[in-house]
Amino acid sequence: MDAPALPGPRSAPAQELTAAAMGSMPYNWLEPTGRREQVLTAWGRGQLAEVPVGLSFDVVLVPGALACDVLDRARAEGIQPGPVILGPSGAEVIIRLGSAPGWCAPGFLLLRRDALLLLPPPTVRAPKTMAARGWLIPPAQREASDPPGNRLPCGDDLLRPYLAAVQAAAEAARLADPGSPRAGRMDR
Fold first, then answer.
1. CA–CA separation, 148 vs 81, rounded Å?
2. Span 53-105, pLDDT tens digits
3. Dihedral sign of CA atoms 48, 134, 58, 56 in order
4. Which of 71, 74, 75, 78 has the lowest tally of Cβ within 10 angstroms?
5. 63, 36 contact by CB (below 8 A)
6. 3 state SS of 98
7. CA-CA distances (angstroms) from residue 44 to 28, 93, 117, 149?
8. What residues form DSSP beta bridges with 86?
9. Which residues of 128-140 are buried (b: 16+ CB within 10 A; e: fewer)?
């Protein structure tokens, strides 16, 4: 007598994936990227999701050594930093679309339009990571009626805290080793 057949893998209906994957991520933030369903499906499977930058938000890359200081300084000035992913290249600060074009600062990088941002599921929060990526500040729940990106921080608001953190790091390096040729230089 043959053994009974085992049931094959079951794919969850999109509604289950959406409910499981949404967590604190507002759906309207993803809508303009055209990848909402792909993101939710990836998250429902416990995978990173790819989302293009420059359609509904921009991303500022801050060196990892400065990330917490920048965020603390921003909060001290009354600025809500918004979603931040801690990845292998530093902190990826998600900001309002088009709000940081004039930045000129050491160690700063504005990701180019259509660069792919890898979003871990909302439940993966630093220090927990998935493929070396975790939410330092997860996206906040938003009303469905909020326009996409409406409550993301303005990049220009983060410039002053960023420059202050760069200056503090340079001063700390200078004081730690005043004879070093690297003193005062901020590398990623």
1. 16
2. 988 889 999 998 899 999 999 999 999 888 899 999 999 999 988 888 777 78
3. positive
4. 78
5. no
6. coil
7. 18, 24, 18, 23
8. 91, 134
9. ebeeebbbbbbbe
pLDDT tens digits for range 131-181: 999 999 987 655 455 555 667 888 889 999 999 999 999 999 888 876 665
Give yes or no for a contact between 85 and 135, defined as CB atoms under 8 angstroms apart. Answer: yes
What is the C-alpha separation between 159 and 162, in angstroms, rounded?
A: 5
Find residue 49's DSSP bridge partners.
Answer: 119
CA distance 111 to 102: 13
Say whether pTM exceeds 0.85: no
Positive or negative, the CA dihedral 135, 30, 76, 171 is: positive
Do the beta carbons of residue 138 and residue 126 sit within 8 Å? no
Among residues 69, 64, 92, the alpha carbon closest in space to that of 171 is found at 69
Bridge partner list, 104: none
Which ranges of the chain does DSSP label H, i.e. alpha helix? 14-22, 27-30, 36-44, 64-76, 155-176
- Integer Cα distance of 64 and 89 in angstroms: 7
Tokens representing 130? 């998935």
